[in-house]
Amino acid sequence: xxxxxxxxxxxxxxxxxxxxxxxxxxxxxxxxxxxxxxxxxxxxxxxxxxxxxxxxxxxxxxxxxxxxxxxxxxxxxxxxxxxxxxxxxxxxxxxxxxxxxxxxxxxxxxxxxxxxxxxxxxxxxxxxxxxxxxxxxxxxxxxxxxxxxxxxxxxxxxxxxxxxxxxxxxxxxxxxxxxxxxxxxxxxxxxxxxxxxxxxxxxxxxxxxxxxxxxxxxxxxxxxxxxxxxxxxxxxxxxxxxxxxxxxxxxxxxxxxxxxxxxxxxxxxxxxxxxxxxxxxxxxxxxxxxxxxxxxxxxxxxxxxxxxxxxxxxxxxxxxxxxxxxxxxxxxxxxxxxxxxxxxxxxxxxxxxxxxxxxxxxxxxxxxxxxxxxxxxxxxxxxxxxxxxxxxxxxxxxxxxxxxxxxxxxxxxxxxxxxxxxxxxxxxxxxxxxxxxxxxxxxxxxxxxxxxxxxxxxxxxxxxxxxxxxxxxxxxxxxxxxxxxxxxxxxxxxxxxxxxxxxxxxxxxxxxxxxxxxxxxxxxxxxxxxxxxxxxxxxxxxxxxxxxxxxxxxxxxxxxxxxxxxxxxxxxxxxxxxxxxxxxxxxxxxxxxxxxxxxxxxxxxxxxxxxxxxxxxxxxxxxxxxxxxxxxxxxxxxxxxxxxxxxxxxxxxxxxxxxxxxxxxxxxxxxxxxxxxxxxxxxxxxxxxxxxxxxxxxxxxxxxxxxxxxxxxxxxxxxxxxxxxxxxxxxxxxxxxxxxxxxxxxxxxxxxxxxxxxxxxxxxxxxxxxxxxxxxxxxxxxxxxxxxxxxxxxxxxxxxxxxxxxxxxxxxxxxxxxxxxxxxxxxxxxxxxxxxxxxxxxxxxxxxxxxxxxxxxxxxxxxxxxxxxxxxxxxxxxxxxxxxxxxxxxxxxxxxxxxxxxxxxxxxxxxxxxxxxxxxxxxxxxxxxxxxxxxxxxxxxxxxxxxxxxxxxxxxxxxxxxxxxxxxxxxxxxxxxxxxxxxxxxxxxxxxxxxxxxxxxxxxxxxxxxxxxxxxxxxxxxxxxxxxxxxxxxxxxxxxxxxxxxxxxxxxxxxxxxxxxxxxxxxxxxxxxxxxxxxxxxxxxxxxxxxxxxxxxxxxxxxxxxxxxxxxxxxxxxxxxxxxxxxxxxxxxxxxxxxxxxxxxxxxxxxxxxxxxxxxxxxxxxxxxxxxxxxxxxxxxxxxxxxxxxxxxxxxxxxxxxxxxxxxxxxxxxxxxxxxxxxxxxxxxxxxxxxxxxxxxxxxxxxxxxxxxxxxxxxxxxxxxxxxxxxxxxxxxxxxxxxxxxxxxxxxxxxxxxxxxxxxxxxxxxxxxxxxxxxxxxxxxxxxxxxxxxxxxxxxxxxxxxxxxxxxxxxxxxxxxxxxxxxxxxxxxxxxxxxxxxxxxxxxxxxxxxxxxxxxxxxxxxxxxxxxxxxxxxxxxxxxxxxxxxxxxxxxxxxxxxxxxxxxxxxxxxxxxxxxxxxxxxxxxxxxxxxxxxxxxxxxxxxxxxxxxxxxxxxxxxxxxxxxxxxxxxxxxxxxxxxxxxxxxxxxxxxxxxxxx
Length: 1541
Prior knowledge:
By secondary structure, the protein is an alpha+beta fold. 33% of the residues lie in helices and 14% in strands. It has 50 helices and 57 strands. α9 packs across α11, α32 (978-989) runs antiparallel to α33 (993-1015) and α37 (1110-1126) packs across α39 (1152-1162).
């Protein structure tokens, strides 16, 4: 080969980032990205997947990075985590673009090796952490020259900022391994210059990635092999931690069952079983951060079968499993579960037309899908030889039907209700084109299976061969009853929904089952076969059966059926019209209920209208034994019934017999009232009375009187008592009582009834003895009174006999006892205004007469009775002997007077004041004017339980006490005397401090003048009230401190409740001071008045209350300092608040001069100024109002800011305390020396170390940046250095260095250096004169790299890339179309295609393996030679040279590669000068390598002499002359003797 002229020629692929761009065009941006990551997790065996959107822009540092360029990737990012650990094969696979290690594993979802690259929609620098490794991918090589890098966790010590973002989801990045896998995808931001995609913001992730994923999320877990839970987290900038915003998971209820079933499938597949079937339930739950969004249970069935030879063959070639799965939602259905028919390849395919089956189930299959997982490969007209298309078709033809059978069988076995099972059947109108044939296979497979439900018997699933099918999918109410009866009889009628009926019709199922229309004829014949089955049905159901049987109006079919409804509720059989047993059809106006005992001879009146119309039709009556009833028969039938009950006789009233019923009598009178045939019934007993205990004769001569309430227009009695009725009966009248309303309201009875006037005349002649009236009851007396009123209402009716009866009959009520008496015994009436019925009067009087009684009295002589006035009653009867009454009587009288107080005459009201009737404590009674109003202000507090308040019935809690109070009969507080005040004060001093408070409240209410009057009252010749009160401890004091008062500080009044007025303080200089402020000022030195009282200065002086002195105030301050120093552990926040309030209160009540004088007397130059609880009291030298250093130096120095030390902000306080006006530079630097002294003792806590380190760093930054320090002070500068336990301050000497040493491993030897603390920036260290230690960085980096210079990034072998291309280009005639296209783009006018079946010699060829290429081949010739541009274009895989030429057909640079369907090593000759060989597998040319997979040879005599057998493969078909100026692609098969077509 050394003398052969050759130069490098090989197909050159795209750069990695160009290939990724092509991939991104196929993989759309959105929720599909998450699905690809879920797919990878499932393939890795993970059960949990989590995604986190970290939207915080500045959460991580940007200083200690591997490369400064990586700073832009420290911002917002998307994380993906799963609980599986990367294996070595996973690390290898993720680096290989388009060549997946999972391609030959039928159990893996990801097969194309490019799905992961969809993340480049979001990022330019993805990274992954698993086990103890971390890897970065940099396809644009902007941060890593070799396209990526890999590190172990030990690199963390050098670059903490770089790896800080990975500390999420339990990843600590520590030396121990991370038992999970974590991906991080920093979002592309505005500052990034990317060749891949546009920028992505966190909001883009939420709207275009998270939200689309949520829409399909409820489907994602259905057909996965391992993943059970997927969660989405969002970490917003304002949040302290990430928030779980969404999750979808298999609920705990079914998780173990799903896990076991999935494991069983995986094990059986791995064991190579030919048939695997599993069905199980899965409850999928979706929830957001607030609530559960959906809970949907699914029935999932899997069927894996390689029993078909064609499927088995393609399964081995394509490395795909013959696997179909179906998912059916189990009610209750969520809204999402009603959108069915999606296709899955483990994960749901995008929702486009090709991915929707139209089936009522979701379909999963190990389909052959496009490498972007968006659609299945379907057969097209010119792609008849594509194995992947054939594979999809075989799955549909052979596996969907048995999977469907398994699904429905499992649904029946669970069991699910028949509605759910039938919903699983396809609805033909919705099934898509590719799936139409599947429906036929499914239906034919199910026809002979027990998958049809019948309610017959106890209900069961039967095959279609055993059933009778109802041709309608819905039943009317009548059909439903008929169907139920068929079930009872045992007829297996099927009720199938419309979708099942359509499927059966398409499958021509009528040729299998004994189809018979479920009509009226079938019903009648079935009922006649089982006559005893339906007779026990309810009447309503029988009517439904009858309505169904009459649907076709074949009346003769009804003969013999017991479905004829009768009016007694029974049913009889239908007979022909010739039968002697006729059934009458009654008119609705004719009440069949009148014919008692004959109801079974009438057709039921309340039939539904359609049913009645058919049964009463002329045609029906001609055929069946039904006839109409005529009106002229009714009267004779009714009289016959009445005479049967009550035969004719002379009596007017006879007892009621057991029959007929009351309703029957009511129906009879209703009929009589309509037809008015009364004369036809004269002499018959037809008038019910006595509440149906008797019945009266209808007689035209001997009339009756109704004693019941009747209609007014009849002029009958409004009502009649038994007493009057008895009198009328004695007069010979027929008195009817308790007659029903339909009798009393009948206008037609007027001529058979006496009027009221006639009855009264009759009663006037009744001989009634007067003595008999005296035995009547009260009700009888009232009845007689009412009757007499009617009688005397007419002057013509008033007789001497009646007047005499009025005087002797007890018609008037005694007032006191309520009994009735006559006017002959008592004739004096109480006044009309006396309303009480039971006023306990000591004389017998009559109640004031009512209207009827007054009318009667008007007929009598006025001298026969007397009516008292109100004044006469109380003057003559009540007040004259009030003291003689018992207390109960007195009370009753007063109650009446109080209830009617406003309406009483003035003389009566005044008399009430002089009555002794109010009970008080101790059992005595007093006059109202001797008692206090119980609700008068402060009275109850002042007098307690003394007998000065009304009690008993007249207590204020009772009605009469309130009436008495409203009448103004009680004392008011203004009447309290000075002597009473002294008594109250003595009680307060004896322990009842509340009375002291009540006295002060009374003083505030009454005012200075009232108090002064009472204080000036003489108790004795030498003493006034005021003089005695001064020596009584009656003032209430605060015995308990406020809640804000420190418990460690003594309280002056701890064991006291009252004190002398002069010892009690509540004001300063006449100004009232609150209890809280007084407790702060003098809590341990003075008694403080308890309560808040509006005491003005005059009252304060009059009462002589004390005031706190400034000495007492500062003594209280000294007590606080003493307690703080001795019991610091007891002092708490309350102590702090008290002291801050103390200093704030001083200038409010005392002048600056007074304060300065008092402070100088009580305090020396000691720590007496309170700062806070942590610091306590400090010296005035550590305080100032301003400073040259603006940051906080606490607790070493304190700058008084108003916001932080408001208790020291008063200029008066500052002046009085002697606080500095400003801190100098020397004061600030002294802080460092103070710190050193304190921390060198080794007693500082960790919190103090951190605090003082921050102060020291701030001082050093201030020295080097903000001010110019005097040279005299420079030697006082101290710097903090690195120390593990404490704060160490040293001068900045030569031994101190700065740099990254603090980030080194703990084993690094630093004994020769003192390292400045890492909180000191490098710039500050330089300004302080500290040396650098950069020499450590490079050595440490080399020590911790896994392999310095190791490349960790993605790559793609040329062969892998070509394999992906031909997968997208279908096998078949498309190959020739691509070659024709290329020839046309080259300008060729002639094209020849030759199939050479010969085997050429193999002696003079390029290599041993080239011999396999000397067999049958396809040769393609065109008459246009290659240009140099063409030579370059065919090398640029995926780019070509025609992409920017709009006149060219081929635009993508990959169409030529379709020839790899035929060959592994294409070659071509152009212009008889160049032979180009493409060897992507690097197998056939000795000079091929993966970097240069092919050669371009310059042709000449020497070349062909060495490789003459290669020449024959071309020139034996076409001559050299023809090959001059043409191009001849030549393709051979890799395997010898293999044919091509």
